[in-house]
Amino acid sequence: MKQSTVIAPSILAADFARLGDEVDKVLEAGADWVHFDVMDNHYVPNLTIGPLICDALRKYGVKAPIDVHLMVEPVDDLVGMFADAGADSISFHPEASRHVDRTIQLIHAAGCRAGLVLNPATPLNWLDDTLADLDLVLMMSVNPGFGGQQFISNVLDRIRRVRARIDATDYAIRLQVDGGVKTGNITDVAAAGADTFVAGSAIFGADNYRDVITSMRAAVDQAG
Q1: End-to-end CA distance of the chain
Q2: Is the pTM of this model over 0.85?
Q3: How many CA atoms lie within 13 A of 172 on its CB side?
Q4: What is the distance between the alpha carbons of residues 101 and 109, in angstroms, rounded to a whole number?
């Protein structure tokens, strides 16, 4: 069952000198979620943000869902920290967790939606024993670690295959895509079966956030 469209700008591409204002503006422009790309310079070769930024945005007054993508190893300790800081959903890479099912349970016990992240070459069979317990599947359309990368086109087939897996169940699972998503390719991504779209530089690098988000929604609608 395909769900309503969600646009989730990644604050990795925002101006951190005025982050609260940036988040306000992108939400006013029509964004649905605020996406956090959390990198640890261990699981991925980059270092970004932690729970303090999440907590700061909540204290600043951000009410929108905060969607946390953990590119970290190990995972479990940060689950509670981000949940306490105000995260609504937390996704992680199965390769980074010693006990994947336990991590999913921890996320749910903390009151958050749980997501599993699949890199472009991660086997889809990670979903065999986890799909029933997930709230979202995040398909990476770039290799994790850096923003601004180009979309890997063969991920479209992987999205179709995961869409088919989800549709074969009765579960309300979101299918999210992250990496190089922009107005020029979001129709193809939606047609493949995605319903939740992460975009960083495509939105925050634009002069007018509303124009980009509106164009993205129109392009998704074209996919039917």
Answers
A1: 14
A2: yes
A3: 3
A4: 12
25 Rama class: left (phi>0) / alpha (psi -120 to 50) / beta: alpha
164-174 pLDDT per residue, tens: 999 999 899 99
Residue with tokens 């990670």: 126
Domain 6-222 architecture = Alpha-Beta Barrel (3.20)
**Tokens representing residue 139 in the block:** 């398909």
CA–CA gap between residue 105 and residue 112 (Å, rounded): 10
| Catalytic member of 37, 40, 67, 195 | 37
Joined tokens for residue 77 = 């300790």
Residue 167 annotated to the active site: no
Angle (nearest 5°) at CA 134 between 34 and 222: 60
CA dihedral 2, 148, 144, 63 (to 10 degrees): -60
Given the residues 40, 67, 135, 178, select the one marked as catalytic.
178
